[in-house]
TrEMBL record:
It is found in: Peroxisome membrane. Solcar repeats lie at residues 37-122, 137-236, 243-328. GO terms for molecular function: ADP transmembrane transporter activity; AMP transmembrane transporter activity; ATP transmembrane transporter activity; coenzyme A transmembrane transporter activity; FAD transmembrane transporter activity; FMN transmembrane transporter activity; NAD transmembrane transporter activity. It comes from the Eukaryota. GO terms for cellular component: peroxisomal membrane. This is Peroxisomal membrane protein PMP47B. The chain crosses the membrane at residues 40-63, 94-115, 207-225, 246-267. It comes from Fusarium falciforme. Its main location: membrane. Coiled coil: none annotated. Keywords: Membrane, Mitochondrion, Mitochondrion inner membrane, Peroxisome, Repeat, Transmembrane, Transmembrane helix, Transport. The keyword Repeat applies. Belongs to the mitochondrial carrier (TC 2.A.29) family.
Amino acid sequence: MSDNADKETIPQVEIPEKVEITPARVVVTEKAPIPQNDNVAHALAGAGGGLLSMVLTYPLITLSTRAQVESKKAESKFSEAVGNIIAREGISGLYSGINSALFGISITNFVYYYWYEWTRTFFEKAAAKAGRAGAKLTTVESMIAGAIAGSATVIITNPIWVVNTRVTTRQQEKKKDDVEAGAEAKPSKPPSTIGTLLQLLKNEGPQALFAGVIPALVLVINPILQYTLFEQLKNTVEKRRKVTPTIAFFLGALGKLFATAITYPYITVKSQMHVQSEGKKEGSFAALRRIVSESGYSGLYRGIGPKVTQSVLTAALLFAFKDVLYEQTVRLRMAGAARRRVAA
């Protein structure tokens, strides 16, 4: 048989990544499909994506949080709200509390993605044993995975978000006190995260760190809805084409928009419970009734403009960043493991 005939009959297959290990170096000669079952890599990528998206959208969080907790009607125009905060506090006012927010989002996303991917792997193994190898998560399985991951995340990170909300709103309260006392209006230094934490523990005790935890657990429905819709849309797209960061951006935006629109009233309740001081505690349903009584049903949606914009952008950027960061994280972990084998 001729050489040409041999070439025609040999099937063309994708050459897997080949790693050449020598005492001096590790050489990666070709790319291979990235394994998708590395829980730690998913967690690290989620944390990194959360950090990047939070930095880009944090001013919108400041505006939304203040609109939710102020007793007066929220400023209606976004540009006016930004201008007023800058006039009172300087540019730094838009980033009040960002230290605790960055710490919180990194921990939140790390915990969430670790447990979400752990649950996903569990379901995939169960599907393989049942003869459904390679099957994607069903809608119910996606919702269960989101519930488990979301509940674990809330319990671990609620104290961080309580402190963050206090830092964000204390600056506004301090400025109002200065104005009422006749003090000259000028930019003031935002309260520190550590200082706020110590003051909270001193005045209200450790239990204050878990203010609003029940509404937060109820709000686990938000990531359940978000990730379920995202996963199902992603599965549909993957049947036709590869999911690029751009596609992930828009799918993430749709998922978050849907989830936030449904759960926003309870987000308002949770924010108000975070800033209640000792002696003014009330249950989540009592807070819900009070808000409706004082401000009408529109009060439940106070600050929704900046919040929806921020939430959708944050989620979209997170999903766009995460896949890229995941691939890089896995490659770094694989290279590190190879180097350790060489050194052993």
